[in-house]
Amino acid sequence: MSIILIRTIILYMIILLCLRIMGKAELSKMSPFQLIVSFMIAELASIPIESPDVSLISGVTAIFTLLFLQVSISFLSIKSERLKNFFGGKPSVLIDDGRINHREMKKLRITINDLMEQLRICGYPCIAQVAYAVMESNGELSVIPKSHKRNITAEDLNMKKGREVMPVIFISDGTVYPQNLSKSGWTEKELSERLSAMGISDREKVFLAFCDEKAELHVFLDRDDTFAGEVKQ
């Protein structure tokens, strides 16, 4: 029992290391090749755990071989478009300028009902609303609606849009995050002044303080009291 426990911990750490080396992109929307590598790594890891007579070194060697293969092909795919298309596939245009691409649909073995279902999932129940529909290499359908069906933007209305920043947390449970302050253009002195203006003298009493996309400060005390700050000058 102890041998299985030790092997499981070792393989868990190794697989975690492999996933970190493979990178975040490999964990989001995987291509067929990436999916196969992930399944094979999981299968190779289970063999030494289920069969104590199998050498742990053999399983680890096989896992690192797959990792090396995956990373090498990822680097080569960056240099070669042909290699990238071979291992990861390439996008296919199913609707081109409002016209259905029957040849591409037949090539991918996609029926009109399949296409309609995917369009409904994307929020477009009628093909007449769609200008372009692209089946990405990871199997996800991207839809570009016709101009008169798109949502109105501030640019369409000739409206001036203010500068936006990424919402970040300044204080959590009394702990200040200087890096987040710097990222949003704030300083600890400015934060202290804003808190003092709200009647808050002790940061440790702040449950949550964050900056929204308009650089406006919001403060929560004891999970109940809410204070709205002013827009940063």
TrEMBL record:
One cellular component (GO) term of this entry: plasma membrane
Organism of derivation: Candidatus Allocopromorpha excrementigallinarum
Name this protein carries in UniProt: DUF421 domain-containing protein
InterPro entries named in the record: DUF421, UPF0702_alpha/beta_dom_sf
Annotated localization: Cell membrane
Keywords from the named record: Cell membrane, Membrane, Transmembrane, Transmembrane helix
Pfam name, any one: DUF421
Domain of life: Bacteria
PANTHER family in alphabetical order: UPF0702 TRANSMEMBRANE PROTEIN YCAP
Taxonomy of the source species: Bacteria, Bacillati, Bacillota, Clostridia, Eubacteriales
Gene3D superfamilies: bsu07140 like domains
Transmembrane segments: 6-23, 30-49, 55-78
Membrane topology label: Multi-pass membrane protein
Record-stated family: Belongs to the UPF0702 family.
YetF C-terminal domain sequence ranges: 79-209
